[in-house]
Amino acid sequence: MDQKSIKREQWSTKLGFVLAAVGSAVGLGNLWGFAYRSSQGGGGAFVLLYLLVVLVVCLPIFVAEFSLGRGTSSSAFIAPIKAAGKNWAPLGWLFLIAPLGIASYYAVIMGWTADIFVQSIFVGLPLNTEESSSLFSTIHSGNRDFIGQIFSITLAGYIVSGGISKGIEKLNRFCMPILFMILILLAIWAAFLGNSVEGYRNFLFNFDIKQLTNPTTIRNAFSQAFFSLSLGIGIMVTYASYLNKTSNLPKQAFQIASLDTAVGLMAGLITFPIIFSFGLGETISNSTIATLFITIPSGLGQFGAIGRIVAIAFFGLAYIAAITSLISLIEIPVSALIDKFAVKRRLASIITSVCIFILGIPSVLSTDLLGNIDAIANVLLILGGFLVSFLLGWVVPKVMDVELENSGSSKSTRTYLKFMLRYITPVIVSCGLLISLYDLLKTWTS
Ligand code: TRP
């Protein structure tokens, strides 16, 4: 059957769409990324830069991605061509390859998360950092992390195959309220820990003004903002393509970005007190993605039965946050296959899941490789963000004009967004992109 004659799927409610976008945004990036990037030396300066990037760069790009998706009603792979012609096909390819790359290692980290979750329920927690390190090596060496990876991809692929409103939207409606509840309870619990104030101080208040110009801190702030908001590689384009014409895009972008940022900050208010209350501060300086999988379990392990319950809640929370993000990453290639090749959704989900599994093998085998793929992907996000802002700011500003008029937002909001997208955002993102590239190459060659 010709796919074009089939009515395009839609979100069943506005709230459903917002929750799905929040579900995509809130993920391991908020829980792990925030903590490990801010502990790489940036501290309060990192958090400040991150907030600035969100406000000045990401919000306009958010609305631009939404406009591109809703304006063209097509998947991220073809939306750039529909909007601006064949020359923009490479952006579609970026929107196809980058999500596959991110999903490939994302699912591996989810596997570790699931493993520690199960471990906390059935076995118990490590009592010190050595035990925790050896637990982590058992988890991620041999074949054990394949199990978690395959389980996560299969689960996410299955949900995506259920469709937009009956799969993705339904899961998010169920998961998001639970996620917020656990998060608030954990933050309250962490506030009463012995050294919580020291944790907060290290996370937010150790403000070193020199860090504001440190290329690594700048790269971390850009990466964190784009990664955490799921921006730059077509997720928001794809999700918005299933929207009807009545929703207020700038307002929704603002809601989603605020919720995501709040979750990132709150996650820091949980992880940092845990880390500092157990004297693990040193082990996380120069931290990597894997470090938190060692410090958090051993920190909680020192807390007896309550620590175990908190670990179950924390890793359960992380897993819920991650699954709603992984489905968004899978949805991009799936929607491209449906739109471009008229493949059935079920088959498209299977093909995508198998690709993600194969691409993830290197990340299973080496955490260093995983870290490098993550670093490259994060630069691609910034590149994608730049191209989107250039496309909608300069090449086809009309697309955004039309969508903004349709959105019921105020005149001043529209003028502000258009001005930013034309004159400010592209300039700042390109600086961020150059600094990030420079910093990445420097880390690799040093
Ligand atoms: N935002 C998610 C997180 O914070 C991860 C994610 C999902 C993502 N989709 C994305 C990152 C698209 C970049 C682009 O964990």
Fold and architecture overview:
- The protein is mostly helical and 446 residues long.
- The protein starts with 13 loop residues before the first helix and ends with a helix.
- The chain is globular.
- The protein contains 18 helices and no strands.
- Mean pLDDT is 91; it is low at 1-5.
- The structure holds tryptophan.
- Tryptophan (TRP) binds next to helix 1, helix 2, helix 9 and helix 14.
Number of β-strand runs: 0
What would you call the structural class?
Answer: mainly alpha
Distance N to C terminus = 55 Å
What is the element string, with H for helices and E for strands?
HHHHHHHHHHHHHHHHHH
Q: How much helicity do the residues have?
A: over 70%
Mean pLDDT: 91
Number of helices: 18
Notable features of this structure?
446 residues; 18 helices; binds tryptophan; disordered N terminus; mainly alpha
What's a concise summary of this model?
The protein has 446 residues and is mainly α. The protein has 18 helices and no strands.
